[in-house]
Amino acid sequence: MLDHDVAIVGGGLLGSAFGWGLARAGQKTIVFDEGDTAIRTARGNFGLVWVQSKGQTMPDYAAWSLQASQLWPDFADELKDSTGIDIHYVREGYNIAASEVELEQAIAGQERIKAGMGDRAYSYEVIDRKTLKSVAPLVSDTVPGAIYTGHDGHCNPLFLMRALHQDMQTKGGDYRPNTPIDAIRPAPGGGFDLFSGCGRLLASAERVIVAAGHGSGELVRDYGIDLPVHADQGQVLVTEKVSEVFSFATGTVRQTDNGSFLLGASSKEIGLDTRTDLPTLAEIVRYCLSIFPFLGNLRLQRAWGALRVMTPDGCPIYQQSDSYPGLFSFACHSGVTLASVHALMVTKWILDGQIPSEFDVFHPRRFHV
Amino acid sequence: MFKRARNIQSKVSILFDGQPIAAEEGETVAAALFAAGILSFRQAPEDDSPRGPYCMIGNCFECLIEIEGLGGRQACQTRVRDGMVIARHRGLATVEAGS
Questions:
Q1: Which candidate in A97, A259, B45, B99 could, as Cys together with A103 as Cys, close a disulfide (CB 3.0–4.6 Å)?
Q2: Three-class secondary structure assignment of chain A
Q3: CB within 8 Å of chain B, chain A residues 30-49
Q4: CATH superfamily of A230-310
């Protein structure tokens, strides 16, 4: 007997956004999450809601990120109204180039997105050093300029997680931490049964979303579902808290709502390894200081590593099983940016039992051409 | 409130917000202040609430304090030194332009 409408495996930013959106839509929803020793991408990320770097090779991903950014203000407002938690979403972001070469590459990237978008509106501005200095007086004199789209921004990703978890449960969703799912099997009579490692039946649901990051592939392998993701490690440093210097984000530096600066943007493929290393941290610091020398006056407080859930082309995977309709498996690395569309749009696909055809481009069959 | 398990054997003196405090050589700033009855090391920048050490093992970063003019230092990871000047954090520091 089915005891839930939807069961979600994974309580990170994807699973939490789906869980919140489905509970909000009145679905009887249960979210299974692991414990504190799990690989917690959602707890280690940088907190960018970022459009301009996305979809240079896949215009639909650029359009999807743009739509996410457009939905973000309402999404953040609704979470604040429901929970009282301000997730500090600020839509202000610059991709600051450290050199002329970087600026040229960034412009070329924006032109690729613009060309790919066709008649879908997308625009960007190249901000010169002088204009940038007017919003960011402490930027280095060696910086040639920046890209501004009006769509990029940042939020407090930990508050986002807390707000989604809290409100999901207020709306009737069931959140189960420390409850790894070991197997998903078709239930007799339709739907799916979810089992723990010792074979205990934990839930039966009409539909299942697998959004377990690096753990997803194994869960859906028996269904012949292809979910190719690898770990892309990013390291982040955080400084002491100081009074507000600027409210915007860049791709590598942002000041959080409580005054810390986050420095980031490394990328390494070293497997499921979250350890930091000095050469990588030093390179992050060197690069960030080349843009904002004042950061050198701040004390570093700590550093950590986290693992992006990276697909072969960096674009999201959204798919429903052909042979077992109702079994959805999703993966992407932009869980913060896409949280708004995941919560407000993707949950409609689940209710409809169908991924709209215009999203076929996100099916992993694209990797087998 | 904390009490020393044994009296100070090898005494050093530190200054906390201008007040001299006796400490055991080799102990941490956090331990010395606790033993002197000081629990609040700073005000949280978010809401000005009083904060002090929580974990005492370097993980929680609640014990941040100004030591020898440098803010944001972990009191539980810093050993006392005779004459060390320590100050409670109040509000947020402002940044300088740098070079």
A1: A97
A2: CCCEEEEEECCCHHHHHHHHHHHHCCCCEEEECCCCCCCCHHHCCCCEECCCCCCCCCHHHHHHHHHHHHHHHHHHHHHHHHHCCCCCCECCEEEEECCHHHHHHHHHHHHHHHHHHCCCCCCCEEEEHHHHHHHCCCCCCCCCEEEECCCCEECCHHHHHHHHHHHHHHCCCEEECCCCCCEEEECCCCCEEEECCCCCEEEEEEEEEECCHHHHHHHHHHHCCCCCCEEEEEEEEEECCECCCCCCEECCEEECCCCCEEECCCCECCCCCCCCCHHHHHHHHHHHHHHCHHHHHCCEEEEEEEEEEECCCCCCEEEECCCCCCEEEEECCCCCCCHHHHHHHHHHHHHHCCCCHHHHHHCHHHHCC
A3: none
A4: D-Amino Acid Oxidase, subunit A, domain 2 (3.30.9.10)
